[in-house]
Amino acid sequence: MAISRAECVALDAADPLKQIRDEFVLPDGTIYLVGNSLGAPPKAAAAAVARTVEQEWGGRLVGAWNVSGWYDLPLTTGDRIAPLIGVGPGQVAVGESTSIAIVKAVSAALGLRPERRVVVSDLANFPTDRYMVQGLAEALGGYEIRDVTGVDDLSGALSEDVACVLLSEVDYRTGARHDTAAVTALVQAAGALMIWDLCHSAGAYQVDVSAADLAVGCTYKYLNGGPGSPAFVYVHPDHQAAGRHLLTGWHGHAEPFAFEPDFRPAEGIRRFTVSTPHVVSYAPLNASLDIWEHVDLAAVRAKSVALTSLFIELVEELCAPHGLGLLSPRDPERRGSQVSFSHPDGYPVMRALIDRGVHGDFRAPDVLRFGFAPLYIRFVDVYDAAVTLAEVLEKESWRDDRYSRRLAVT
Amino acid sequence: MAISRAECVALDAADPLKQIRDEFVLPDGTIYLVGNSLGAPPKAAAAAVARTVEQEWGGRLVGAWNVSGWYDLPLTTGDRIAPLIGVGPGQVAVGESTSIAIVKAVSAALGLRPERRVVVSDLANFPTDRYMVQGLAEALGGYEIRDVTGVDDLSGALSEDVACVLLSEVDYRTGARHDTAAVTALVQAAGALMIWDLCHSAGAYQVDVSAADLAVGCTYKYLNGGPGSPAFVYVHPDHQAAGRHLLTGWHGHAEPFAFEPDFRPAEGIRRFTVSTPHVVSYAPLNASLDIWEHVDLAAVRAKSVALTSLFIELVEELCAPHGLGLLSPRDPERRGSQVSFSHPDGYPVMRALIDRGVHGDFRAPDVLRFGFAPLYIRFVDVYDAAVTLAEVLEKESWRDDRYSRRLAVT
């Protein structure tokens, strides 16, 4: 084999991020390669929610809106996410879900380019991104959604009636990563606005969308904010004064507690907040952001590249005869922190693998996904995962009937 | 005085709901008359969030989406709210905020009445209800928002181009309560759809919107779901097949895990869900709904009427010379579970009162609000609150400078 288990143990011992793993809850016997779907809990998350529920809500009741900083959570939390995506304070608002953030971003973009009536969307975008744009365009009327297939298709699609382009920085199925700077420049050169979906990149490496117009992202994957933790929207400072979006709730009002009859947008990023934040769901997210404050993002990227490259190398070496096809780019520059393989029986293969303690996930029709969250995944996990996958394929363990029964959530 | 403190103690001893108070966290020395803004925490809320974070997220990681029922939380939680608003299972979807629920309800209503281009909105509606309709109408174009001032104005506004009417069942400032059945019938007779906002009524008494077309409401007031707990939308079964709304996220898709490129709505109420639920924020809400399962709603209403009537009586008796004006209806049939008084110096009066342990709140320009959550407010609390308010006014304690400094959240 390309590497021994002992060599992996040595790599872990030399890992500059190795102590950060201790900050996370990782059940014994589990190799958790699903941090690209739901990040592992920070150990501090439990105490954080207990503090919010018992001390803040229980101790101060409604007074906590002032005393405990609840009211400003969307902005204070946004300012903590900002450095992870390469932007400054006052540029990120947290709240709701990525789907809702897409409505904010796209409706703002359409307002900023009122003469242009086309939204470009990628067939590789995560489906909810597409669905939200479809729902919005159908409701607004008079808009065209122009689908592209990957970035190669983009130049041809950028006619002068394109208002904005919405792309996922990292493909949720393949882990393929766009050249964000080049694509942003291309889109902006055509007079359109660039909106990035950072769901599969924020926390996977040092994102930089400072040149982009808008961005959205979730916080429950590599950012470890907890199941359904609130999402974020980034708005370039140049667009904040003119940027208006559809979801004009009272927290985005210039004076929410004046209870005026008509909407008047707040200055700055606050106008991209909508309403009462889901306070309890912010607690684990902020516990995770406490960890991120001390993380070297260059080390995260270096480790991510090493982990994913090693996994590709080992799986290809060990599993070559068993019908796996690499879906992720070989060039680490073009790859997020995820490796995907196709397999015609991907679903039962993944179920069998999970049954043996190696947790990846499956995406229709045939995609086995493995996420490598650099904060808590070790080289030895990569080794053990590849060996276990090889055993499942070699022994055809996945043919057991119980692995083909579909669960509600795949 | 109309009643003695000892008589209030006796009323509490005879209260059929008296044991339910023990299920809530209420700090010593606090008379909490703000349950109409943020309900008190159920004692079980802390254990519920700990279970979600430690056992479910920490113990099962991403597998909890299946094993712990996370995926269906919007619908299972909705089915638990349904009996509190007089409707059946499969009619309520939980998620996001009331503001977002308004976009779902109003955009669905507009789709169901495509020939009609007017939305009727009350100037007494909570501002975010108005703001969301304004943002939606501006984005869609071609719609008129017709403002009415209370229900007396409504008949004249119901021309044949009205698609829907959005009203708050209980006025957030005055506590005035609509005759829901009569108003619904009036609106529907004009061919329009009736949308009720139940924020200040759900959990205050037995709501019944089964004849209405749509409804929205929050869960963090009388329902005690916790700060920013998710909101709900009700859709009458007759409208579910044809009802389409603007926020077409993947959880509302017929097959979310097929990852199809185009949106196709799920059957039934599920299409009114959008995306990944804020799982941690559902935990306290479901802890509260465990309590509600065993509550006699007729007893809630009877106690609410008794508490609010007694408070009006005592305050008017004790505070008559001090410039308070009753804003709430005297007829208990027309009143929610809230009593409001105007006072020209309402803000410092409320601050002084809170400083003495009686927590109400203030709404601009001059409204002192007192909410009486029947699950945990006692008759003796009503007595003590009225006596304390009288003292603050009598001694003019509110003239202390520190009470006029405005807090961020009022």
List the helices and strands and how they pair.
Two copies of one chain form a homodimer.
Chain A: H1 5-13, E1 31-32, H2 44-60, H3 64-67, H4 73-81, E2 92-95, H5 98-112, E3 118-122, H6 127-140, E4 144-148, H7 154-157, E5 162-168, H8 180-189, E6 193-197, E7 214-217, E8 231-235, H9 237-240, H10 279-292, H11 297-319, E9 325-326, E10 338-342, H12 346-355, E11 358-359, E12 361-363, E13 367-371, H13 379-394
Parallel strand pairs in A: 1-11, 3-4, 3-5, 5-6, 6-7
Antiparallel strand pairs in A: 2-8, 7-8, 9-10, 10-13, 12-13
Largest binding interface between chains: A-B, 91 and 91 residues
Q: Determine the structural class of chain A based on helices, strands and strand pairing.
A: alpha/beta
Task: Label the overall shape of chain A.
Answer: globular
Low-confidence stretches of chain A: none
Element order of chain A: H for helix, E for strand: HEHHHEHEHEHEHEEEHHHEEHEEEH
Instruction: Tell me the quaternary state.
Output: homodimer
State the domain count of chain A: 2
Would you kindly provide a written description of the structure presented here, covering whatever features stand out?
Chains A, B: Catalyzes the cleavage of L-kynurenine (L-Kyn) and L-3-hydroxykynurenine (L-3OHKyn) into anthranilic acid (AA) and 3-hydroxyanthranilic acid (3-OHAA), respectively. Chains A, B: Homodimer. Chains A, B: The modification N6-(pyridoxal phosphate)lysine is found at residue 221. 2 copies of one chain form a homodimer. Chain A is of the alpha/beta class and 410 residues long. Chain A has 2 domains: 5-17 and 296-399, Aspartate Aminotransferase, domain 1, CATH 3.90.1150.10; 46-292, 3-Layer(aba) Sandwich (Aspartate Aminotransferase, domain 2), CATH 3.40.640. Helix content of chain A is 36%, strand content 13%. The first copy, chain A, has helices at 5-13, 44-60, 64-67, 73-81, 98-112, 127-140, 154-157, 180-189, 237-240, 279-292, 297-319, 346-355, 379-394, and strands at residues 31-32, 92-95, 118-122, 144-148, 162-168, 193-197, 214-217, 231-235, 325-326, 338-342, 358-359, 361-363, 367-371. The longest helix of chain A has 23 residues, at 297-319. Chain A is globular. The model of chain A has no long low-confidence stretch (mean pLDDT 96). The interface between A and B is large, with 91 and 91 residues.
